[in-house]
Design a protein that fits this description.
By secondary structure, the protein is an alpha/beta fold. It is built from 15 helices and 23 strands. Bound molecules: shikimate-3-phosphate (S3P).
Length: 429
């Protein structure tokens, strides 16, 4: 169990940052590349524990994947080219690997089993097992199919029309991946839009996807084209340094080539509403995904209220919003965010507990929290709760907490951002 020590510093943050590739897009490039007809090349791929879980899962299904630095070559075998794995597939900490593969494996001609680490084993799977079962899938799991391990017996699927009860890109993607094989039309309806990387990548690789308002429709296909995929830098990783720059006087950082898909930029909308000085420049598109460079400068922040459709657009950044709120004038309110309780850990409880150790005043609700701003923070001994985003959020708060903060169990940052702690030191130099 490694620990990290973050010391307070009044030094402004200056410089250019190149965060690693987007985690969601990296997972999808491996999965779709594996079932494409031919070789795909992925550039600026995220090398992290979660994406390596997907790479190893696809290898276990008979796919050759060569990783060279951040460049990945996937030799796709087509929609019907996967083979029965010899062992149980270990998805590690990765919910995306598990849920997306549940959809894909439901349609194969063999039986396979998915499991994961103790955090993933505690997370709900009924949300994917339910709709996939309606499509005809045969899935058995612990706790009446709600928990890992899941054993999936591939079978012929049929299309369904499914209204998502909770906005979830993972559930939507599992259904769409199953829909690639299903008889008849598959339709997913979202009450609030979640990230659409699967739909964008499928379209980019030649699969017709019909989007109309909050409905996504597709039919099975015979072929997915291979392609060259350039992965944008992950806005969820960039966000830590956007907030660090806003709360540190005299700072200005330039964050390059960041994915600015409008269903992921909720964090920028929220921080701008709080008075954050953030600009997106040099906007362009790569393989169907918008990207840009982000400039963030120190700012006088004020409180905000966040709820409704903004929540799925900033779901992974809400712990970090709580950090920004500690440095904003007034009381910030986050509601409609019950989903945070079933992420890698209960992120509402984790943030309330750890920020309070630093001297913040946080009130927990079942579906969110309120954070009283402008309290001065003091270093303490904090836990990551084994969750990468908790470790990094607390680290950013710690940069502005008097004295020093120890973060225990900090190695979990490698789930999405290996090298994260080094970047803090580099920017302070
Ligand atoms: C993800 C979707 C989100 C997000 C997760 C990655 C994805 O989860 O929190 O980090 O890649 O589809 P949900 O679909 O559970 O909201």
């Amino acid at each position: 169990m490694s620990k990290e020590i973050i010391k307070y510093s009044s030094a402004p943050l200056k410089g250019e940052i190149n965060p690693p590739g987007d985690k969601s897009i990296s997972h999808r490039s491996l999965i779709l590349g594996s079932i494409a007809n031919g070789t795909s090349l992925v550039k600026d791929f995220l090398i992290s524990d979660d994406t390596i879980s997907t790479a190893n899962a696809m290898r276990a299904l008979g796919i050759t994947i060569e990783i060279n630095g951040t460049q990945v070559e996937i030799i796709g075998k087509g929609l019907y080219g996967l083979s029965k794995p010899e062992k149980v597939i270990d998805c590690g900490n990765s919910g995306t690997t598990t849920r997306l593969l549940s959809g894909l494996l439901s349609a194969q001609t063999f039986t396979s089993t998915l499991t994961g680490d103790k955090y993933l084993q505690a997370r709900p799977m009924r949300r994917v097992v339910g709709p996939l079962t309606l499509m005809g899938a045969q899935i058995a799991g612990k706790d009446d199919g709600n928990k890992l391990p899941l054993t999936i017996t591939g079978t012929k699927l049929k299309g369904i029309r499914y209204e998502l009860p909770v906005p979830s890109a993972q559930v939507k993607s599992a259904i769409l991946l199953a829909g690639l094989y299903a008889e008849g039309e598959t339709e997913v309806i979202e009450s609030e839009a979640s990230r659409d990387h699967t739909e964008r990548m499928l379209s980019y690789l030649g699969v017709p996807i019909k989007k109309n308002g909050n409905s996504i429709k597709m039919n099975s296909v015979d072929v997915i084209n291979p392609g060259e995929i350039i992965v944008p830098a992950d806005i969820s990783s960039a966000a830590f340094f956007i907030v660090a720059a806003l709360i540190t006087p005299g700072s200005e950082v330039l964050i390059k080539n960041v994915g600015v898909n409008p269903l992921r930029t909720g964090i920028i909308d929220i921080l701008k509403n709080m008075g954050g000085n953030i600009e997106i420049i040099n906007e362009r598109e790569v393989n169907g995904e918008p990207i840009g460079d982000i400039v963030a400068r120190s700012s006088n922040l004020h409180a905000t209220e966040i709820s409704g459709e903004l929540i799925p657009k900033a779901i992974d950044e809400l712990p970090l919003v709580a950090v920004a709120a500690c440095f904003a004038e007034g009381e910030t309110l986050i509601r409609d965010a019950k989903e945070l309780r079933v992420k890698e850990t209960d992120r509402i409880k984790a943030m309330a507990t750890e920020l309070e150790k630093l001297g913040a005043r946080v009130l927990e609700f079942e579906d969110g929290m309120s954070i009283m701003g402008s309290q001065s923070l003091t270093g303490s001994v904090c836990s990551s709760w084994g969750d990468h985003r908790i470790a990094m959020s607390i680290a950013i708060a710690a940069t502005r907490a008097r004295g020093e903060t120890k973060i225990l169990d900090a190695e979990c940052v490698s789930v999405s951002y290996p090298g994260f702690f080094k970047v803090i030191d580099e920017l302070r130099r």
